[in-house]
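Fold this: CsbD family protein
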Amino acid sequence: MNKEQVKGSVKEVVGKVQQKVGEAINSPEQQIKGAAKQAEGKAEKAAGDVKQAFEDSTKK
């Protein structure tokens, strides 16, 4: 697991929490920010996955 994968996973979890807090306090702004952070985290994790796959393929 590389740095991008870890950072992406963390952002995804933080975004999910932020979205749920927004729902709990009835704040559409927080819900949107949370969803955006989740999407950013998923993209960062996917980039990390590609990077990891490339590194793994070059080692063989």
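The mean pLDDT is 95. The CA atoms of residues 26 and 47 lie 33 Å apart.
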